[in-house]
Design brief:
Elements (H helix, E strand, L loop, with lengths): L2 H8 L9 E3 L5 H8 L4 E3 L2 H4 L6 H6 L12
Parallel strand pairs: 1-2
Amino acid sequence: MHKKSLIISVNSDRINVSLVVCNKPGAGVLQIAAKEEIPSLVIEKRKVFRGNAYTDELQEAGIDFIILAGFL
């Protein structure tokens, strides 16, 4: 499934994409998220495996579920 298709098909009355997380600053999905007015977070791969990683950012965004699509 194409990244844009995933974001558009998942955004519905029952499911809402609250945050797009990406480890590549120039990734197209970040432009798609911006166009769809979805917040994004660019992460460092090394930080994912240290400490609480990005737990605070995910909690602040109210994330309930994480979908990994082409992650790392």
